[in-house]
Structure formats: structure tokens, C-alpha cells
TrEMBL record:
Its main location: nucleus. PANTHER family: MEDIATOR OF RNA POLYMERASE II TRANSCRIPTION SUBUNIT 11 (PTHR22890). It comes from the Eukaryota. It is found in: Nucleus. This is Mediator of RNA polymerase II transcription subunit 11. Belongs to the Mediator complex subunit 11 family. Component of the Mediator complex. Keywords: Activator, Coiled coil, Nucleus, Transcription, Transcription regulation. The gene is EOG090X0LXA. GO terms for cellular component: mediator complex. Residues 85-112 form a coiled coil.
């Protein structure tokens, strides 16, 4: 999915270059002493057509990025799952740490109540 999106953006970039080229050709034709209005209109029409297509494609990509950045579900995203996994993993590590702390406290408490010398004095 990401590769397809990058390829689509690469195509949009090529269309932008084509759009600029059409605009340049129209301006070049207009700068001539005897400009062919048919050529100017053809280049202008191509410019507008390409520009509208570029605008539509960029809008699609912007909408996709808006969905991704706001956390809304969309196809191909694992962000939510990865975030939940990392949070659960963090909680697990914290719980293990706290349990280890409690185990250490218990062992110290047991060690202080059962002293080696006190076990020998009690028959």
C-alpha cells in the first residue's frame, strides 16, 4: 500500500511538470509576434485539464493523510494496533517490576522474622 501511494505521488509530480510545460508553451506562443490562438488555446486547455487532475489527486492524498493523522481507522494502517501493543507491553513490564519489588519485600520480611540464631534457641 505505501509503495502504491508513493508511485501515485510520483505520477502527480510528473503531471505537475507536464502542467508547467503546457503553461510555458502557451506563454511562448503568446510571446510570438504572430501567435497562433489555436495553439495557445490547446496548451491552455491541456494546462487546465492536467491542473484539475493534479488537484484531485492531491486532495485524495491529503484526505488520506488527514485520516491517518487523526487516528481514524483506514485500510492498511497498523498504527492503532502497534500503539495498543506497545502500551500493553509497557504495562506488562511495569507489572513485572512491581511484582519483583513485592517479592523482594516479602523475602526481606521473611528473612528478618526467621533469624538463624532464633531457630536454634526454640526447641
Amino acid at each position: 500500500m505505501p509503495i502504491e501511494r508513493l508511485q501515485a505521488l510520483d505520477n502527480v509530480e510528473k503531471e505537475i511538470a507536464s502542467c508547467i510545460q503546457s503553461a510555458g508553451q502557451a506563454l511562448t506562443e503568446l510571446s510570438k509576434d504572430k501567435a497562433s490562438m489555436k495553439q495557445v488555446e490547446s496548451h491552455t486547455s491541456q494546462f487546465l485539464k492536467t491542473l484539475n487532475h493534479v488537484e484531485g489527486e492531491l486532495s485524495k492524498h491529503i484526505n488520506y493523510l488527514t485520516q491517518v493523522s487523526t487516528g481514524q481507522p483506514h485500510e492498511g494502517s497498523a498504527y492503532g494496533s502497534v500503539k495498543m501493543y506497545k502500551t500493553a507491553r509497557h504495562r506488562l513490564e511495569h507489572t513485572r517490576s512491581r511484582l519483583q519489588d513485592l517479592e523482594n519485600l516479602k523475602n526481606r520480611a521473611l528473612a528478618s522474622t526467621i533469624r538463624p540464631g532464633s531457630a536454634q534457641n526454640n526447641p
